[in-house]
Amino acid sequence: MDQPQWSMRDARNKLSTVVEAARKGASQIVTRHGKPTVMVLPASEYARLCPKPPPKGRRSIVEHLRGRGKFKFEGAALKQRDLP
């Protein structure tokens, strides 16, 4: 099934229609100059795709390694990166 596509102009002019369609479960693609640029999707689908934060009290791998004392992280600060 092809997902509905909206030009940027049409999506802006009919935003409530785009959002309502996404809310009902049909992800909407917004194009710019004919190329897919962004997607409007239901919040439930977004929650499914995004990783959950670690449970309270659990440390990230960077924090774990820093706490062991065997690794020295110097120079640029390490940042947690978003995973696809």
Question: How would you explain this protein's 3D organization?
Answer:
The chain has one domain (1-73): YefM-like domain (YefM-like fold). It has four helices and three strands. The protein is elongated and about 55 Å long. The mean pLDDT is 81. The protein is α+β, with helices and mostly antiparallel strands.
Question: What's the overall average pLDDT, rounded?
Answer: 81
Secondary-structure arrangement, i.e. CATH architecture: 3-Layer(aba) Sandwich
Number of strands: 3
Tell me the helix content: 25-40%
Distance between the termini: 24 Å
Tell me, briefly, the overall form: elongated
Number of helices: 4
Give the name of the CATH superfamily: YefM-like domain
| Major sheet size, sense and barrel closure | 3 strands, mixed
- Pattern of helices and strands: EHHEEHH
Query: For the CA atoms, what is the radius of gyration?
Result: 20 Å
Q: What is the class in the CATH system?
A: Alpha Beta
Helix vs. strand class: alpha+beta
Into which percentage range does the β-strand content fall? 15-25%
Poorly predicted parts: none
